[in-house]
Amino acid sequence: MQTHSFENIFRQYDWDTVKNAIYAKTPADVENALNKPRRGLDDFMALVSPAAAPYLERMAALSMQLTQQRFGKTIQLYAPVYLSNECQNICTYCGFSLNNPLRRKTLTGAEMLREIDVVKAMGFGHVLLVTGEAWQTVGMDYFSRALPVFKQHFPQLSIEVQPMEEEDYRALKPLGLHSVLVYQETYHEEDYKKHHPKGRKSSFGWRLETPDRLGRAGIHKIGLGVLIGLEDWRTDSFFTALHLDYLQRTYWQTRYSISFPRLRPFSGGLPPKSIMSDRQLLQLICAYRLFNPDVELSLSTRESPRFRDHLVPLGITTMSAGSKTNPGGYAVAPSSLEQFEISDERSPAVVADMIRSHGYSPVWKDWDDFGA
Amino acid sequence: MDELIIAGQAFTSRLFTGTGKFGDLTVMEQALLASGSQLVTVALKRVDAGHQPDNLLAHLRHPQFRLLPNTSGVRNAREAVYAAELAREALETNWLKLEIHPDPRYLLPDPIETLAATEALAAKGFIVLPYIHADPVLCKRLESAGAAAVMPLGAPIGSNRGLRTKDFLEIIIEQSKVPVVVDAGIGAPSHAAAAMELGADAVLVNTAIAVAGNPVAMAAAFAAAVQAGRSAYLAGLPVAGTRAQASSPVLAFLDETVENNVAN
Which residue range or ranges hold the Thiazole synthase ThiG domain (chain B) (predicted)? Predict the structure, then answer.
């Protein structure tokens, strides 16, 4: 059986050539993309280009229409639960980086239950379990214990942890694993190495191939994204779209989501290399929706309440709410160091009310495990 | 009384409705009531044990609504059987809208897994209404496998594109011994009326109502269209032709000629 690999596709593209092509797009290219019933990667380039900026109103209207048709007037809600801030990597932008002096914390089984009580009481049926990348403390043994504990209380479990082997994902799936988020951070290989000088994360290729391993393991949903601010966001987003396009053709039974984390201040952090405005983030969200009407688009509490409120109808399908980005942040250790500062500090109930005020329905549960 | 009978259950409304995509559950409830629908689909994956806010089931507690749990989210026959058993327990019904669409983009049904699941579920006593492509042969196979009705699609689900599969729907309707419910793609009351005029036994509508500017008014419009289409079908639609036909037939004189000859 043929083993597929995105790396083979990726190596056919040169970063600078792609970047130049994006910046060379004209208003006519944008018009052409907007007028098509189906849009490809070249159209995506036009839609994320500077030439598309004056067309944002039209893009937003189309994005709203496509999103309503495919997802209805609903927004899925989830809560991140940080299990550990231990990490063996050095990353220039992350609060959990190995060289960042902070008190490390990994939740015990009893502490998980305390966190679960609080998150469950908020109404969530979907949690995203997050750890740093520390194979010894938060590896397969830990996940194999943690997932069943959470599965008893939440129908939908996602994880955002270190990239793992295909057989590891296969082993976690029957324990209730539904989705895996793995962000490439940047598709600029040289810059990637600068930002990840130490630890397993320094291997660009190993991370790049993770969605392939997930696809082969039959994981229901794969979350992609880059850390916006590390590199030119338009070019990085093109490579994300290229990755998505390849994955959808290859692992056609898998669902996909895209997230848009913009670099936020954190303890010991590096200032962003490129700044993305709210207007540009909206352009990117609309571009993804026009390129792919079916992909789930997720917006975290990194973004401000005002911005999140206005984005409800414009293409987003999923939001976190009431998030704590530190291990034990809900009940066990509320004052431990956060991975990044959140901007929207409203409670899930308030966020749900905001969603309703837009004429949208908050969805707390949208999955059951039928794997028998 | 023009009733639709499925598995011994009589329905006076031939408009079946879905519960997904609504922006407000109270509006959904009002729309379903306005539709007059007596069969309402519910995604099992959206049904919760009761601890979540925005509980869908709380809005469906009306005696006229028979709930039809669907298996949206399953990817093969094995998962479908498991989901059906969960649904029977959670919603206390053996009725099931069988949906197996492994492709999460277009939600197109898998005919092989659907047939296998229908056989297994019918044997377990479920009233199975499978969602399928408009494939006349598959419909006959499902009929033999024990399906209580068949639900061929008019167009890709949620697309609002109408009866793109019309030629095949006509064959299915002509051949079927079980009720035919056109499901998916119906985006306007005129599409629903057209399906009923073809002779479909019912239609299932969700997106077109849920994302309408006024879902309650749209539900009422669909109810009227379904009724009109059904009435037209029962009344016997004239065959469409390409040439004008005089309403006074040109050969009427022949009968007179015969009579004259007899008289002479």
Answer: 6-249
